[in-house]
Amino acid sequence: MDLTVGAIDACRKTCTDVGSLPHNGFVSTIHDSTPLTVINPSDSTLGRHLARRLVQIGATDVFSVPGDFNLTLLDHLVAEPGLNLIGCCNELNAGYAADGYARSRGVGACVVTFTVGGLSVLNAIAGAYSENLPVICIVGGPNSNDYGSNRILHHTIGLPDFSQELRCFQTVTCFQALLNNLEDAHELIDTAISTALKESKPVYISVGCNLPAIPHPTFSREPVPFSLNPRLSNQMGLEAAVEAAAEFLNKAVKPVLVGGPKLRVSKASNAFVELADTCGYALAVMPSAKGLVPEHHPHFIGTYWGAVSTAFCAEIVESADAYLFAGPIFNDYSSVGYSLLIKKEKAIIVQPDRVVIANGPAFGCVLMKDFLRALAKRIKRNTTAYENYHRIYVPEGHPLKCEPNEALRVNILFQHIQKMLSSDTAVIAETGDSWFNCQKLNLPKGCGYEFQMQYGSIGWSVGATLGYAQAAQNKRVIACIGDGSFQVTAQDVSTMLRCEQRTIIFLINNGGYTIEVEIHDGPYNVIKNWNYTGLVDAIHNGEGKCWTTKVRYEEELIEAINTATGDKKDCLCFIEVIVHKDDTSKELLEWGSRVSAANSRPPNPQ
Predict the structure, then answer these.
(1) Alpha-carbon torsion 583, 584, 586, 589, what sign?
(2) In whole angstroms, how far apart are CA 161 and each of 77, 113, 115, 153?
(3) Is the pLDDT of residue 12 over 50?
(4) DSSP 379
(5) How confident is the model at residue 36 (pLDDT cuts 50, 70, 90)?
(6) Which residues, in sequence order, are CB contacts of 576 under 8 Å at separation 6+?
(7) Is 308 in contact with 414 (CB distance < 8 Å)?
(8) How many Å apart are CA 258 and CA 323, to the nearest integer?
(9) Would you call 350 helix, strand, or coil by DSSP?
(10) What long-range pairs does 440-444 form, CB within 8 A, spacing at least 24?
């Protein structure tokens, strides 16, 4: 069946699965088979065509920063019914917002100006590339007459060759479209957008500043909805891979399943759960896959993260005689400084289009979703690993209760955040100790969860929260952000207010870059303390719905949460939580020392 990208009405339905396309597996579906209408000649322009395409694929909110090269293009985006242009405070946050939006809606878009805007958004686009998110990055480029003219333009580095921006984007996007004439603009726009959807990676579209408003015959009709042919497995390879994997797993005594972050790009989360239902194996996730696998599954045993795993999870995974990893990424962070105790000869590694069985055969052109579903029909049920887990499992203790007016501890904070979670909420975890504290939250069915582990750019969460909340308006977002990260991107709390978002932000004020302290301490990890609630009050400036408070004790925290979820449930709520600078999770202490050891390995002998 073709993957169809189509009608506006379908695009307005919000996706409720975290980091995936809507339930039917489509970005959107066209239901109206009436002939495509002829467009008014004055609207038959490049700008309106691009706007219509964005609406068609579901990017009905576009995050932007104006600049002189993109102003005419922005006029045409504003004029498109069904498209909401959201002005951000800077390009980096616009890119992060498109990233967060894509995690919920399946695709995101941002618009910036040439070079000064493009290079500012580049970091966010690189993060989206690392996380396999289809983000349409649109740049207002120079006048088409300036290409090859040997002129020097503003917003450049002062050379007549102003291809610097394009060359930078070539390494962090899967397709680059340079629109400097109208003859091939239609084809390039459609190729760029369809490539982003097929590859699940960002693309770059540069639009000459003199082109968006000019009518052209290629834009004279409503654009034909995309029909993207799905990728298919090599059937012989699929059958061979399934046969080899089934033989390998069926002779194991205590096999386990571990889900990885590439379940998202493979759209294989459901197939993975179907396999887990069938086989009865103990089921774990890698840290960067949290939120992609339901934690209410009866055989779920937690997060496998080596030495900082959920209690009893690593013991079950690492003692297994066979493990199937679906979509893993083994980097220095996810492997806790390369210290995982897993052996290649015991592992089946399933990547989006490849299966590797232990030290033996590898099978290419085999899609993960197809493989997992076919394997489920060939696998023998084996609950040994889960039974072992059930025997050794001891429920986690509760944090020591805070005495009245005792300084609030981080573990108490997250105990109360846990109670806030439901199918109507989503958690955004910033890079830092929030990674570890949020990882320990038990996600109820339907609760969203996002963080950026592969790229790990501090400040990501402010823009991502803006974008995710805009895309998933049926959920209340709970963002856990450290003070150091917040200082990087704080401005776009302003945009959250303009968009009337109801997010709850927990600003964890511990006076510095705590995650860096635990890797390698130094005076550079201490930051200037801000009056964070005062800053947000100044940004609020009496416009929109906003409520702020500082909490130092558990009693104040309880009151703040009751207010945020009660009287102020329709407001943006900003809760500054003041904690001791050395109050960190035990997992960060262990992880930091191991990552530090990996970073400080001496050079190999020459």
Answers:
(1) negative
(2) 29, 17, 12, 9
(3) no
(4) P
(5) low
(6) 507, 509, 532, 533, 548, 549, 550, 551
(7) no
(8) 7
(9) strand
(10) 440/310, 440/414, 440/585, 440/587, 441/414, 441/417, 442/295, 442/418, 443/290, 443/291, 443/295, 444/296
Phi, psi of 460 (to 5 degrees): -55, -35
| SS3 label, residue 87 | strand
Helix (H/G/I), strand (E/B), else coil: 517? helix
Q: Which phi and psi (to 5°) does residue 543 adopt?
A: -110, 120
Assign 35 a pLDDT band (cuts: 50, 70, 90). low
Angle 91-105/118-130 helices, nearest 10 degrees? 30
Contact 528, 509 (CB under 8 A): no
Share of the chain above pLDDT 90, in %: 76
Q: Is 292 left (phi over 0), alpha (psi -120 to 50) or beta?
A: alpha
- Give the integer Cα–Cα distance in Å for 277 and 295: 13
- pLDDT, residue 409, reads 94
Tens digit of each residue's pLDDT (9 = 90 or more) over 546-592: 999 999 999 999 999 999 999 999 999 999 999 998 888 878 888 88
Q: Indicate the pairing of strand 448-451 with strand 135-141.
A: unpaired
Count Cβ atoms within 10 A of the Cβ of residue 505 and give its class: 0-12 exposed, 13-18 middle, 19 or more buried.
buried
Q: Which residues is 138 bridged to in the sheet?
A: 111, 205
CA atoms of 126 and 454, how far apart (whole Å)? 11
The per-residue pLDDT for range 364-418, each reduced to its tens digit, is 999 999 999 999 999 999 999 999 999 999 988 788 888 888 999 999 999 999 9
CA dihedral 100, 587, 417, 423 (to 10 degrees): 50
**DSSP assigned state of 490:** G
Q: Is 91 helix (H, G, I), strand (E, B) or coil?
A: helix
Q: Which of the 8 DSSP states describes residue 474?
A: T
In our burial notation (b when 16+ CB lie closer than 10 A, e otherwise), range 492-502 reads bbbbbbebebb
Residue for token pair 């408003």: 213
Query: Containing H/E element for 418?
Result: helix 410-420
Spatial contact of 468 and 428, defined as CB atoms under 8 Å apart: yes
Alpha-carbon Rg for the chain, nearest whole angstrom, is: 25
